[in-house]
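Quick one, tokens below. Sequence please?
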């Protein structure tokens, strides 16, 4: 009766400890998954823009989702079982040597073979898993691009094309998965059959020991039971080893991305943070190539200066390098040679946080995020000591001509704008982008073709907001805000203090509107061409 009670207690304790062990590893696996994602996300947010130009979004999201999940799941499921099996193997080995050291040594014949096989198989699966995860990421890139561009896909009836592209990557992934399965089949065959052969040898040699009186028949039976338990433990470890090897392959892809070396002069995360900023921008003999187009020079010996509090305009044909200048001022890219200075200090010497506080930009295609209008306006300031009040948000909304349409919405400033602002029109998104730029109270304001993609009515509303910003920059309230405008339209640039005409990566003319018109050069030609186009449009409207 006592033995039965002991057995019941042992059974209960075994179940409790098993449940506790499983729950602990579930928590550990979840923590590993989250910490990997947080660490990877933190690293990604510090990488240079060129990295994102060269790396597909699907590859990055695959690392953040499927790869980190695979690593976390393996920790949760397999490390738990691995430790249990390891304890089981060690305990069984002790009992086996206590029964017969001769039979124990014989049982270890298969260990060196399985060890060498496991090492080869592990290296093979690890490299294969890397390729498999790459194919999976490529498939994710195709699906992500198609889903995010669904109106274009449907407009061109490109659904079958996107499906074939996605299926091609999935077929390659499946072929690699089959190759991995075949390799595992061979590994499992050897790692399972060899211990069975060893068991037959142990039975034969054990029989001789029993006949010679070295061990009893009961001890031989016990040893065989221990050997079976040992075989089960090694089989479990072998299976786990295969799964962990796949996890290591996925982890390698994550760590490669997490700890990649950054080219050029990396921006200092703890760089300079002066108390004041004058807003003086200078480019000295700058030469620039984009990482995605290393053989095409976009800026060639570029030099220009933006005095504090001045308004300058960059104009010229598309592809001349105007937006590239704006990107360098923001330190989105590194120049190949020359210097990009802010207040006589190279921009890469400043901390990213401080630099972003001094510069605001309104782009041709503003990016809004799937959150409320209020949070989009205060984007980047939320949760900081510079977070604007609701009154300040509404003030800049009125100045940027977007308070009217916001106030007509049921949720007003708490209205969700949808993915990339799909719930709003182009003009509405642009005006919110202007409010977002104003609320930061920047020392340098960048306007990159802010009205070129709008219809006439939206352009008028946005242009009014831009005119206000320029007037603010000129006024005392602007506190010396410098403005850099990239535009084609004459109405946007003619009142700038200095106009730079950019062609083929160089400044070919500079001066104010009147001076450049008198020179009858490239700027004058641009103005005449634009006026001719405007006359044609007006005549067509009259007709």
């Amino acid at each position: 009766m006592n033995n039965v009670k002991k057995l019941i207690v042992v059974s209960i304790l075994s179940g409790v400890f098993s449940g506790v062990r499983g729950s602990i590893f579930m928590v550990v696996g979840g923590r590993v998954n989250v910490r990997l994602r947080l660490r990877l996300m933190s690293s990604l947010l510090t990488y240079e823009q060129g990295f994102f130009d060269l790396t597909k979004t699907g590859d990055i999201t695959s690392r953040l989702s499927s790869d980190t999940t695979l690593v976390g799941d393996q920790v949760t499921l397999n490390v738990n079982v691995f430790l249990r099996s390891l304890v089981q193997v060690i305990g069984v080995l002790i009992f086996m040597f206590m029964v017969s050291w001769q039979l124990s040594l014989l049982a270890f014949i298969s260990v060196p073979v399985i060890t060498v096989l496991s090492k080869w198989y592990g290296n093979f699966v690890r490299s294969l898993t890397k390729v498999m995860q790459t194919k999976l990421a490529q498939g994710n890139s195709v699906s992500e691009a198609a889903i995010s561009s669904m109106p274009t896909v449907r407009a061109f009836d490109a659904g079958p094309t996107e499906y074939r592209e996605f299926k091609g990557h999935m077929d390659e992934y499946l072929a690699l998965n089959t190759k991995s399965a075949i390799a595992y089949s061979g590994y499992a065959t050897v790692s399972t059959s060899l211990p069975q052969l060893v068991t037959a040898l142990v039975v034969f040699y054990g029989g001789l020991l029993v006949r010679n009186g070295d061990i009893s028949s009961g001890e031989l039976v016990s040893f065989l039971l221990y050997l079976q338990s040992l075989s089960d433990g090694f089989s479990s470890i072998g299976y786990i080893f295969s799964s962990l090897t796949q996890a290591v392959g996925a982890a390698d892809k994550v760590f490669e991305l997490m700890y990649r070396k950054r080219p050029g002069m990396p921006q200092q995360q703890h760089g300079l943070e002066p108390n004041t900023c004058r807003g003086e921008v200078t480019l000295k003999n700058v030469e620039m190539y984009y990482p995605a187009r290393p053989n095409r020079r976009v800026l060639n010996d570029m030099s220009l200066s933006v005095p504090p509090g001045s308004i300058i305009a960059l104009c010229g044909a598309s592809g001349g390098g105007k937006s590239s200048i704006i990107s360098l001022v923001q330190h989105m890219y590194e120049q190949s040679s020359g210097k990009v200075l802010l207040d006589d200090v190279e921009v890469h010497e400043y901390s990213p946080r401080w630099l972003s506080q001094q510069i605001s930009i309104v782009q041709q295609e503003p990016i809004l995020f799937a959150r409320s209008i209020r949070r989009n306006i205060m984007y980047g300031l939320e949760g900081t000591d510079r977070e604007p009040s609701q009154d300040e948000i509404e003030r800049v909304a009125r100045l940027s001509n977007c308070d009217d349409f916001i106030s007509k919405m049921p949720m007003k400033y708490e209205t969700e704008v949808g993915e990339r602002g799909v719930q709003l029109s182009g003009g509405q998104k642009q005006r919110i982008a202007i409010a977002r730029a104003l609320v930061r109270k920047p020392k340098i304001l960048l306007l990159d073709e802010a009205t070129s993609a709008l219809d006439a009515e939206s352009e008028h509303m946005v242009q009014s907001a831009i005119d206000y910003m320029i007037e603010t920059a000129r006024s005392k309230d602007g506190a010396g805000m410098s403005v850099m405008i990239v535009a084609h339209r004459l109405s946007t640039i003619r009142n700038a203090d200095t106009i730079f005409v950019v062609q083929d990566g160089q400044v070919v003319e500079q001066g104010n509107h009147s001076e450049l018109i008198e020179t009858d050069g490239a700027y004058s030609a641009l103005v005449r061409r634009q006026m001719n186009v405007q006359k044609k449009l007006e005549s067509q409207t009259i007709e």
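The longest helix spans residues 159-211. The CA atoms of residues 103 and 205 lie 8 Å apart.
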